[in-house]
Amino acid sequence: MADTLARSTDYRVLRRLIPRTEFAPANGQPTRSGILLDVETTGLDQVRDEVIELAMIKFDYLPDGSITRVADVFTAFNEPSRPIPPEITELTGITDEIVAGHRIDPDAVAAFAEDAVIVIAHNASFDRKFSERYWPVFQHKAWGCSATEVDWRKHGFDGSRLGYLLAGAGFFHQAHRAIDDCHALLEILAFELPDLGAPALAVLLERARKKTMRVWAEQSPFDLKDELKRRGYRWSDGSDGRPKSWYIDVEESKESSEIEFLRKTIYMRDVEPRVQALNALSRFSVRA
């Protein structure tokens, strides 16, 4: 019945995600190792809040971005110094009783991540900052973001949320742990994008390898903030040591046009805005 419905254009069949360890055959080709990472925390503040769960999947992949196998899995809890807020327990299902007495071994984390050439998270700007604070090994790794470094809507998905992507790949799952989300993300990245005939991981890797430019609109007129927001600028409140200012990340080829936009539309004069060059080693880091 399910196979018949799947062949029809009138139905979409979703199958329960069953984690697997084997994907495309390597056939003797050289492989590299990557890590999918997810952290659960007591809140959003990267300085004050604490990690309560870390999950990682180490996987091997081919030069064309095809995932070949799961090499290892890591999952651990961490007891924070203060009780877990009720809203976090409601969101994650993690209680004080679950994490009581648990610590995440930093040496075990470093050993697990040592040979990975890239770390991928579905919200890398969040996960990387917490990970670098707890485990220095992640400061020296290239990072990719599966939520922002693939244009999912362009490839026919309904959005970039994990549930949307999993449904677009033909699956559903009932996540209870961070490791469940890692398995879901692995399946999504292994999915062959119909318009390209290539796995989603290949698109992410290509984007992650490219340099991007962060353009700052410091001391921009307050009454033009909506213009900046419509353009895609985000606000930095300065609490993390970065400028208190609007900024945007653009492809290297679009740097000149972005500066021209600021000159003509925002400042109405010839300015030289602050520009940072970012790559996979610095992107999403608290140091960027």
Topology:
Blueprint: H1 2-7, E1 15-16, E2 32-41, E3 51-61, E4 67-77, H2 86-92, H3 96-99, H4 106-113, E5 118-121, H5 124-134, E6 142-145, H6 162-168, E7 171-172, H7 178-190, E8 192-193, E9 198-199, H8 200-209, E10 212-217, H9 225-231, E11 234-237, E12 244-251, H10 255-267, E13 275-278
Parallel strand pairs: 1-7, 2-5, 5-6
Antiparallel strand pairs: 2-3, 3-4, 8-9, 10-12, 10-13, 11-12
What is the H level of CATH, i.e. the homologous superfamily of the largest domain?
Answer: Ribonuclease H-like superfamily/Ribonuclease H
Q: Find the structural class using helix and strand composition.
A: alpha/beta
Strand order of the largest sheet: 4-3-2-5-6
Low-confidence stretches: none
Organism: Tardiphaga robiniae
Pfam families: RNase_T
Protein name: DNA polymerase III subunit epsilon
GO molecular function, one term: 3'-5' exonuclease activity
